[in-house]
User: Which sequence fits this backbone?
């Protein structure tokens, strides 16, 4: 094959590769712990956020011990008892895919909770705010169970997707369209 023939084949292939959009896992993560996901070689979670209602307020990831009774417990009480609790905030981006990052102290099992604090009050507003858990199970009118929040963090940044849920009338919290 001649060099001009190779160039005719290679040029369209190279252009096609340049046109492929970056996947969500390759997208830069945002949040207080974004550097942990950028490094990629430390225990952290890259959370792809799906189904966000709007682009206002801020997003919050909270990492808890994977222990019944500690999931969604008051952070001050957990810290006072010497238990794990870690939080990462990020302003809601105005456009594009959303990838949040939260670091973990070491590889292992944890419980994770995501909220969309739409009014920025830093207190969950049942009527306005959104929530999500790694299981992506419909939350309905009940508080998420520990089993819904369980995640396994590896030695490197681990990617998961969480579907946001908002109050939908009498049926409680569910993703958009359900």
Assistant:
């Amino acid at each position: 094959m001649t060099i001009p023939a190779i160039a005719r084949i290679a040029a369209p292939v190279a252009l096609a590769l340049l046109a492929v959009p970056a996947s969500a896992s390759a997208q830069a993560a945002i949040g207080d712990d974004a550097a942990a996901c950028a490094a990629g070689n430390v225990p952290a979670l890259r959370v792809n956020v799906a189904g966000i209602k709007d682009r206002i307020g801020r997003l919050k990831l909270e990492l808890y011990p994977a222990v019944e009774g500690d999931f969604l417990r008051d952070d001050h009480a957990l810290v006072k008892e010497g238990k794990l609790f870690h939080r990462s905030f990020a302003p809601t981006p105005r456009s594009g895919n959303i990838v949040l990052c939260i670091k973990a102290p070491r590889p292992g099992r944890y419980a994770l909770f995501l909220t969309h604090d739409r009014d920025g009050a830093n207190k969950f507003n049942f009527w306005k705010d959104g929530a999500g858990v790694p299981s992506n199970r419909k939350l309905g009118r009940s508080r998420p169970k520990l089993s819904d929040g369980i995640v396994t963090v590896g030695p490197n940044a681990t990617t998961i997707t969480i579907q946001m849920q908002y109050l939908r009338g009498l049926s409680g919290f569910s993703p958009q369209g359900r």
Remarks:
- The first strand starts at residue 44 and ends at 50.
